Each structure stands twice: as structure tokens, then as C-alpha cells.
Amino acid sequence: MLKIRLARGGSKKRPYYHIVIADAAAPRDGKFIAKVGSYNPMLSKDDANRVTLKTEVIADWLKKGAQPTDRVARFLSKEGLVKWEHGNNPQKGTPGKKAQERAAERAQREQDRLDAEAAAKAEAEAAAAAPAAEEAPAEEASEG
Description:
alpha+beta; 5 strands
């Protein structure tokens, strides 16, 4: 499988990248088939020399089945060669199946605890009201 990707050059803390066509199994800065552009992140974003591309050559490689990496796809989308959409995977942050099960169990335990507290409170109120009701007839009987 062919990839259109960045190969790093430049010195320490001064990156410079060549945009290359390489086999997916080749190392990042290793063997490549062709250089098709460059990317200099040290230049300002509005500088024309920040990204240089050989668009005709890249278009040919895309027809042959080369897949751009995400960063290179960004550059190519500005030239209209590929479609790239900004955004993250919305499913990435969702908990897994086990975590969802644990959360459901925790919520059920909490609900059971609240139900038990409400039942105990209702019993206590009923018990407090019952002796008062029992005392009232006793008082009436003693008055008569």
C-alpha cells in the first residue's frame, strides 16, 4: 500500500518536512519512491513557501491508489485534490460496554438506596402519626 506522507528533515527544533510517496511499511524517514512537495512549519501560515506541492504528480499517484495521511490530506484539500473534513471521532470519548454496565449498576444501586430511604422516612412518619392517633381516643375515654 502506498502512502503520501511527511518525511522529517531539518535540525533539532527546526523541523522541515518532505512530502513523499512511500510504501506504508517503510520507516518515516527511510526509503521512499518520490518527493512530491515540502512543508516548512517554521514559516508563517500565510507564507506561500510554507507548503509546496507538485499537484500533477500527486494527482497521478492518487489515481494509482496512494492514500494521503491526515496532515497531507489537509494540504491536498486546499488544492482541491482530495476531500478532507475537519473534526474528531465523536465515538472516541464514549465509555466502553463494561463501563456503561458499571454505570448502570451504580445508578440502580443509588436509586434503590433512595427508594429505601424514602420508604424508611414514610414508615417513620406513619409510626409517628399512629401513636398520636392512638393517644387521642385514650384521652377522650379518660375525659368521659
